[in-house]
Design brief:
By secondary structure, the protein is an alpha/beta fold. Strands 8-1-10-19-18-17-16-15-14-11-12-13 form a 12-stranded mixed β-sheet, with helices on both faces. The longest helix has 23 residues. About 0% of the residues have low confidence.
Length: about 475
């Protein structure tokens, strides 16, 4: 797994390194060396490197990089945006060294015909809109068509949320100092950072609170099956799903649970949905004797919870009232996944939220999260890390970058593609997570594994079908581990 940090954590780690005896000037020069390597990999013959710098330590990284390039005989210059007297001590040190060494320093950027740009205006501390001269120069940089390499994070991008603070640099590459920042993976971060390189500054062996899941991390979680395995060992899943309006959601979640490896699957669903399972004979359908989710169906679902290893609730339920089913599942402490209409019921029956516990996984997208928190979508997007940490259970916050949070840990997953932005993807995810729970994974790990299997399977399918043609059923067919 790869460490991710917030802005506050990045600053704290720097202070720890200096307290351990690493001089701040050494940290800045090491950061600059990472920028130099990125420049040398992209520079064309005849290019001049222009470092567009602010007066903070991020600007100091750019100033030092220009100095190091100049010493290697690569034409470079510094555009200092701001009063030199306001430079931080370390930035001022390298600015004096650059001037003494013959690096041109100016206050206005006049573009050259052959030029590569280093963006070192703002670092991770920026938390207000970019205005005035700074907004103008970022706009000019983006419109120039020149290669841009950002120091630590594209200027104007919020380091924690990935929001654009009125305007942000659109980089071709970003050299992240010590670790990627959360905002590089959230919001607009992935679109604006370009290719990302991590420049190590110091050793850090502490266990991360935020981390990026790679395929090997998920592979280590997935249960291995002994040669004498049988269905009884692989868990019995109960899905309470479907309605007359949305029978397909029930089938998709069921097929995904089966493909995900649950040993047995029982589907409790209103009677009009049961004929749709003719194509899924591996699923056991439980007759409710009802047309919709009424009190009789509730009793059937609650009775079926006995001797189940996991429960999935909500996919395709529509406007049916399943609050009693959710309450019974939560009180049972059987590992439970709530999605879609199950989350809508949770939002409209707030007393149910008091029953959430660490054996539960909820899987909201940002709109559902806003309803659960009684806030706006913009508020969730402004601080998704905080939003995901508001519940005493595992929260899988769906998005282009999915967050999985539990017990102070947050995993970032970027598997998947825009082809998943279609109906049915969430139903597949619910089935996969339920299958992982049934096979004994802890809720946090089951959610991570389910998100990976959905995303990586979609990536395999899209190579064959393309994003526009990709269907949720195609993803199920590509699930493998």
């Amino acid at each position: 797994m790869e460490r991710i940090v917030t802005a506050a954590q990045a600053r704290h780690k720097d202070r720890e390194a200096m307290a351990a005896g690493i001089p701040s000037l050494t940290l800045m020069e090491t950061a600059a060396k990472g920028i130099v390597e990125a420049v040398k990999a992209r520079i064309r013959p005849g290019d001049t490197v222009t470092a567009i710098c602010g007066t903070g330590n991020n600007g100091g990284d750019g100033i030092c990089a220009a100095l190091l390039l100049h010493r290697e005989g690569i034409p470079s210059r510094i555009v200092l945006c701001g009063d030199a007297r306001r430079c931080t001590p370390d930035a001022a040190h390298f600015l004096r060294a650059a001037q003494d060494g013959g690096v041109p320093v100016c206050s206005q950027w006049e573009p050259l015909e052959r030029e590569l740009l280093i963006d070192a205006l703002f670092g991770v501390g920026l938390d207000r809109p970019v205005e005035g001269r700074y907004a103008e120069i970022i706009g000019r940089m983006n419109e120039s068509g020149k290669t841009i390499i950002s120091a630590d994070i594209p200027s104007g991008l919020h380091a924690d949320s990935g929001r654009v603070l009125s305007v942000a640099v659109r980089a071709d590459a970003t050299v992240a100092m010590q670790a990627k920042k959360a905002g590089m993976l959230l919001g607009q971060g992935r679109a604006l950072c370009g290719e990302v390189f991590v420049q190590p500054l110091f050793a850090d062996t502490s266990e991360p609170d935020l981390f990026f899941d790679e395929e090997a991390d998920i592979a280590a979680l997935l249960p291995k099956r002994p040669f004498d395995s049988h269905k009884g060992r692989n868990g019995h899943t109960l899905l309470c799903v479907g309605s007359k309006q949305y029978p397909g959601a029930a089938v998709l979640s069921a097929r995904a649970a089966l493909r995900g490896g649950t040993g047995l699957l029982t589907v409790c669903t209103p009677d009009p949905v049961r004929p749709f399972f003719a194509s899924t004979p591996e699923a056991i359908t439980l007759p409710t004797g009802t047309e919709d989710w009424n009190a009789q169906a509730h009793m059937a679902a609650i009775g079926a919870m006995k001797r189940k290893q996991t429960i999935g609730i909500g996919c395709g339920v529509g406007s049916g009232d399943i609050a009693p089913v959710i309450e019974a599942a939560l009180r049972s402490h059987v590992p439970t996944v709530l999605d879609a209409d199950g989350l809508n019921q949770l939002a409209s029956h707030w007393e149910l939220s008091k029953l959430l516990h660490d054996n539960v996984v909820i899987t909201p997208h940002v709109g559902e999260m806003a309803r659960l928190l009684d806030t706006t979508i913009d508020a969730v997007l402004a601080d998704p890390l905080s939003a995901a940490a508001q519940f005493p259970c595992t929260v899988l916050l769906k998005g282009a970058t999915t967050l999985v949070h539990a017990n102070g840990k947050t995993a970032f997953l970027t598997f998947g593609n825009p082809g998943l932005a279609k109906g049915g993807s969430g139903d597949v995810l619910t089935g996969l997570i339920a299958a992982m729970l049934a096979q004994g994974l802890k809720p946090f790990d089951a959610a991570r594994a389910g998100a990976f299997l959905l995303g990586s399977s979609a990536d395999r399918a899209v190579r064959l079908l393309g994003e526009r043609m990709l269907l949720a059923t195609d993803v199920i067919d590509m699930v493998q581990y």
